[in-house]
């Protein structure tokens, strides 16, 4: 039973646990599918395939590819409603093109942490996104760590501005998103034979003109992708 209390545009939609669900999500899924960005069956649940379809639509429309259905995305969909409203949606097998591969999330113990309210929020959102991608994810935030860490666990500290890492560890600056996965991979490789600890430094709390919550969500999306890709790079070299 789909919650009919929300219409498309009533609230921002993005990937999280618990998943957003409702009539607005189903309308979004139907619109994306009718426009050629398949997210599978329109079940009214905002899962990983819906987020992937949304990001492809955003890229196609020249919008920020943040996977968040907000004002700009709703405006673009409204402008195109003649192309999707009342049209049959198609549901070919959805593709998952981003780096948050379930195998990586399920095979690596990772603890994310921050020391400020904002960086703790980013860490928690990264953990939440990983769990939304696969229930078997081994990625967690320090605030929700339920088991004693062992030598195989990676610790990733999120810094912002001039914050200092908890210890002397490889520290990756959040600049040049294109090279970020490679630089994360290099930092991870540098921990071989040592404690598996790295830090990632954000330039500031704000993401462009976004508010605190949306900024934290966007940083979490980009950092989790980079971390997954970095782990693959580190394992291959």
Can you tell me about this structure?
The chain is an alpha/beta fold and 237 residues long. It folds into two domains: 1-98, Orthogonal Bundle (Muramoyl-pentapeptide Carboxypeptidase, domain 1), CATH 1.10.101.10; 102-236, Chitobiase, domain 2 (2-Layer Sandwich), CATH 3.30.379. It has eight helices and five strands; from the N terminus they run H-H-H-H-H-E-H-E-E-E-H-E-H. A five-stranded parallel β-sheet has the order 2-1-3-5-4, covered by helices on one side. Helix 7 links the parallel strand 4 (171-173) and strand 5 (197-202). Helix 6 (117-133) packs across helix 8 and helix 7 (180-189) crosses helix 8 (212-236). The longest helix has 25 residues, at 212-236. The N and C termini lie far apart (48 Å). Residues 93-99 have low confidence and may be disordered.
Feature tags:
Muramoyl-pentapeptide Carboxypeptidase, domain 1, 2 domains, 237 residues, elongated, 10% strand, Chitobiase, domain 2, five-stranded parallel sheet, 5 strands, alpha/beta, 41% helix
> If you consult CATH, what is the topology of the largest domain?
Chitobiase, domain 2
- What CATH architecture of the largest domain do you see? 2-Layer Sandwich
Number of helices: 8
Tally of structural domains: 2
- Return the CATH class of the largest domain: Alpha Beta
Order of helices and strands: HHHHHEHEEEHEH
Blueprint (SSEs and pairs):
Layout: H1 23-34, H2 48-60, H3 71-79, H4 81-84, H5 102-107, E1 110-114, H6 117-133, E2 139-141, E3 154-160, E4 171-173, H7 180-189, E5 197-202, H8 212-236
Parallel strand pairs: 1-2, 1-3, 3-5, 4-5
């Amino acid at each position: 039973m789909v919650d009919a209390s929300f219409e498309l545009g009533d609230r921002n939609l993005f990937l999280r646990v618990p998943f957003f669900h409702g009539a607005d999500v189903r309308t979004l899924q139907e619109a994306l599918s009718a426009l050629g960005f398949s997210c599978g069956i329109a079940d009214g649940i905002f899962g990983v395939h819906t987020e992937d379809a949304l990001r492809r639509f955003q890229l196609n429309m020249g919008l920020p590819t943040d996977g968040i259905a907000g004002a700009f995305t709703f405006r673009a969909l409204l402008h195109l409603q003649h192309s999707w409203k009342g049209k049959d949606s198609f549901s070919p097998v959805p593709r998952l093109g981003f780096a948050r591969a379930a195998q990586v999330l399920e095979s690596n113990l990772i603890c994310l942490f921050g020391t400020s309210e904002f960086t703790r929020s980013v860490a928690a959102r990264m953990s939440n996104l990983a769990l939304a991608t696969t229930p078997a994810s081994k990625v967690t935030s320090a605030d929700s760590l339920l088991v004693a860490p062992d030598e195989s666990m990676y610790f990733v500290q999120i810094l912002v501005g001039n914050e200092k890492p908890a210890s002397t560890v490889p520290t990756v600056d959040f600049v040049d998103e294109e090279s970020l996965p490679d630089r994360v991979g290099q930092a991870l490789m540098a921990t071989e034979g040592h404690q598996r600890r790295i830090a990632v430094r954000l330039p500031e709390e704000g993401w462009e003109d976004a508010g605190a919550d949306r900024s934290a969500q966007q940083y979490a999306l980009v950092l989790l992708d980079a971390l997954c890709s970095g782990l693959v790079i580190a394992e291959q070299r």
